[in-house]
């Protein structure tokens, strides 16, 4: 998201065609990575049980932003005759959403039960191995 915001800012700031092409290629590559990663990030933030609800809210917000953003962009272009402000606003929105997503992801902790279950399973396995070795030693002494 940060790179996407930077490329949108670069498109708005420059009038050189090669810079725009490179920015668009980078933006497209980042968008191709961002969309699948978004759904994984939503699952990490809201958890598997609330994934459908989190996914629905995310897609609803993206749809509303698509409707409002295109209308507002057209209105801004009609008012100013330039697309620069639109790219600046898109860059600001991308950068703000990246910061918000990182802040949210940092606050969300991994579920403690997954680590505890793993530790418990490993401890149980080790305990079982120790008991088996004690039984073998006992059997060897009796024989």
TrEMBL record:
Record-annotated membrane-spanning stretches: 20-42, 54-77, 83-108
Pfam families linked to this entry: MFS_1
Domain of life: Eukaryota
Keywords: Membrane, Transmembrane, Transmembrane helix
InterPro entries listed in its UniProt record: MFS, MFS_trans_sf, Proton-linked_MCT
Alphabetical list of SUPFAM superfamilies matching this protein: MFS general substrate transporter
Keyword Membrane appears in the UniProt entry: yes
Keyword Transferase: no
Protein's UniProt name: Monocarboxylate transporter 12-like
Organism of origin: Saccoglossus kowalevskii (Acorn worm)
